[in-house]
Amino acid sequence: MSAEKVSPYYNRLTENVPGVIYQFKIDKNGKASIPFANERLKDVFGLSPFEVVSSAEPIFNMVHSHDLKNLFDSIYTSRDQLSDWEYEFRIIKDNQIKWLRGVARPEMLPDKSMVWHGYILDVTKSKNQDDLLIQQLEFQQLIAEILSGFVSLDHDSFNSEIILSLKQLGKFFHSDRSYIFLFTSDLKSVRSTYEWLAEGVSEEKSIAHYIENNRCAWWQDQLMANRIIHIPYLRKLSGPDQIEKSTLLKQKIESLLSIPMFGNGVLKGFLRLDRVKEKGAWTDSQVKQFKVIGEIFSSVFAKFDAEGALRLSEKRYRLLAENARDVIYRVKLYPEIKYDYVSPSVYHLTGYKPEDFYTNPTIHNLLFDRDKQVDSNCVNPSIKSFDKPIICRLLTKGGSLIWCEQRVVCIMNDQNEITAIEGIARNITEQKAFEERLTALNTELKDKKIALENLNQSLEDRIVKEVEKNRGMDQIMALQARQAAIGEMIANIAHQWRQPLNVLSLAVYDIADAYDYGELDKKYIENTVEEMNRVIQEMSKTIDDFRNYFKPDKDKIHFKISRIINNSISFLSPYFDAENVRINKDTPTNITLYGYAGQMEQVITSLLKNAIDSLSNYYEGEREIFIKAQRSENESCIIQVFNNGWSIPEENYSRLFDPYFTTKPEGKGLGLGLYVAKIIIEKNMGGTISFKNTSDGVVFEVQIPYELE
Q1: What is the C-alpha separation between 36 and 352, in angstroms, rounded?
Q2: Taking the model in full, what pTM does it have?
């Protein structure tokens, strides 16, 4: 086939080949040229074939300076050995580095010139992927080394391990300085500085003074906004950060990369890299990797701070245990009974010192002398848990009997066997005496009510027959009625006090739980004391409210229904937690009522407590209570309390608001909550109270006019 016919086919072929097809020639005088190259030369080098026909110098001028010598060596080796040439090298085009791979076969011409026939491909993409993979593997190894250093880190080796990690970071990211600055809580100064320096680089901690003088507004704004600060060429930096620039230039910094370090949403400090000897940007991949490292360091410092706080907390806990009025103890049961710890307050409870328990593991035989059955439960390894407090009598060293309440937690091993118990013991002798007196008063109240009912049945006949004779009896009846009223009030007080007493009990025992879980700090103690004082005030307020039932001239005030509901929810919050009940509310703050605020709060509390009790035995789903307040069309306020528990049986409809009617087990309630709520709403507030079953549960509804006449 003639050359004229071959040329179009050849040109079409070379145009569609992905790369540069070329001839490279070195004549006998050593001059290099490219006699032929297809149009792909423009795509790769940005040069036309015409520009390199006479000289290959424009191509060589684009080769990276680090690769130029080796490129020539490979060409000369191929020429001298007449071996195939294959080489990868870099060129710089448009300020970007490209990787090329060349393959060619040499041919000696008759005039001793050498010609290579071959092609050149752009392999930048695959080369970058290879470099990225290597970098990722190196980065993973870096993270593994840093994390391994922190696994068994203790307080004494913390600083040295941080410096070692900074050294690894500096070398990995090709930096001359790497350091961590931690701020004080007010962000105005530095509390700790960790710094690594490459050889020959001077230490620069003057930035601490720079922060103290509050001359870094721009810098701190970037950190507070959780922004990465990446300055490839510091000397070219312009903008609102000129003060920082001058300070950084004094530290001989050419380029820097900094990321903020946060803990629990609060800025703690920053991690930074400096380049002093060279300048240049970090790649996007390196910035992302550096951010990951910053998050690791943030977690490490958060853990270190938490452990420090834990050590301080443990010290405070021990001080608290040593000075607590209740007895805190731990008894080891396996392989033998042994008291690991007993707080000093045991002496005030039993008359025995802690040393008596440590030297005599069977001392409980003396303490529980008259309650053997309780003793066996306390130390029996077959018992897996103590769901209720242990109420028992103790025989003190002086020979007196006291009542003691103990909250006990079982410590289990991996085989689910109890190995120890931990608990809190307190003297409840006075409380037991009060309960006994209260029980006696309740019994007396019931007896007097029965006597009063019997007396009323025959009262009319007796008045007709013996008016004069029964004048003295009238006085007795009046006295009995008064006693019955007093007894009923006491019963109501007892009923209302049961909740705050339980709240106080839960609050006290929650201190032990907080101790076990490391939550017992000053703030927790203050909050608990505040809560207990609030409950005590509520108990006192309950007495005042019940006393005020008998005062028709009690003052009325304007009050926000939302405040009343919030008070009741706060009052019952321990019950919501204990019964795992979720409370939802829709209470606008713009609904104001005029009436008896204290009594209204008692009603809301009773309805919420009644809802909690209804859910206590409900196991079919999530327990929820929803309380809502809204305006009605007839100028009144409607309050609804809904719970998603069991429906009210139809046979209880007519008796639900009767006094002393309760569906709770014997001794668990007097049945006065809804009765008292009905009295307050209808007689004192001029409203109505009702209930109904729904497809999802039960709703109680209270309707009260805005203004009472």
Answers
A1: 107
A2: 0.37
Condensed to tens digits (0 to 9), the pLDDT of residues 412-428 reads 888 888 888 888 888 88
User: Which has the closest alpha carbon to 183: 305, 250, 244, 270?
Assistant: 270
Q: What is the pLDDT of residues 459-506, one digit of tens each?
A: 656 666 654 554 444 334 333 333 443 454 465 456 566 777 777 777
Q: What is the C-alpha to C-alpha distance for residues 219 and 246, in angstroms, rounded to an integer?
A: 13
Q: How far apart are the first and last CA of the chain?
A: 120
3-state SS, residue 631: strand
- Residues whose CB falls within 8 Å of the CB of residue 584, separated by 6 or more in sequence, listed in order: 624, 625, 626, 627
Are the beta carbons of 369 and 375 closer than 8 angstroms?
Answer: no
Closest CA to 239 of 215, 210, 218: 218
The encoded tokens of residue 151 equal 């696994």
Q: Are strands 338-342 and 177-183 parallel, antiparallel or unpaired?
A: unpaired
pLDDT for 366 beyond 80: no
Omega into 260 within 30° of 0, i.e. cis?
A: no
Give the number of C-alpha atoms closer than 13 A to the C-alpha of residue 35, restricted to the C-beta side.
12
Q: Name the 3-class secondary structure at 672.
A: coil
A 10 A CB-CB count for 555 gives 8
Confidence of residue 247 (pLDDT cuts 50, 70, 90): confident
Mapping DSSP to helix (H, G, I), strand (E, B) and coil, where does residue 683 land?
helix
Amino acid at 348: H
Cα-to-chain-centroid distance, residue 183 = 23
Axis-axis angle for helices 471-516, 561-571 (nearest 10): 70
Q: Which residues of 684-696 are buried (b: 16+ CB within 10 A; e: fewer)?
A: bbebebebeeeee
Tokens of 258: 């900094």
Q: How far apart are CA 665 and CA 686, in angstroms?
A: 33
Please tell me what DSSP assigns to residue 685.
S
| pLDDT tier at 288, thresholds 50, 70, 90 | confident
Q: Please state, in angstroms and rounded to a whole number, the distance separating the CA atoms of residues 659 and 676.
A: 8
Measured between alpha carbons, how far is 53 from 35 in angstroms, rounded to an integer? 5
Angle CA 42–48–53, to nearest 5: 135
* Alpha-carbon span 163 to 155, nearest angstrom: 14
Alpha-carbon distance 533 to 527, whole Å?
10
Q: What are 217-235's pLDDT values in tens digits?
A: 777 788 888 889 898 888 8
DSSP of 192-232: EEEEEE-TTPPP--THHHHHHTT--HHHHHHHHTT--EEES
Q: Is-contact 180 270, C-beta < 8 A? A: yes
**Residue whose C-alpha is closest to residue 492's, from 544, 531, 534, 449:** 544
Residue closest to 223 by CA, chosen among 244, 209, 199, 202: 244
Half-sphere exposure of residue 692: CA atoms within 13 angstroms, side-chain side: 5
Tokens of 285: 């991949």
Q: How far apart are CA 599 and CA 685, in angstroms?
A: 9
* Distance of alpha carbon 403 from alpha carbon 232, whole angstroms: 76
Tell me the β-bridge partners of 97: 92
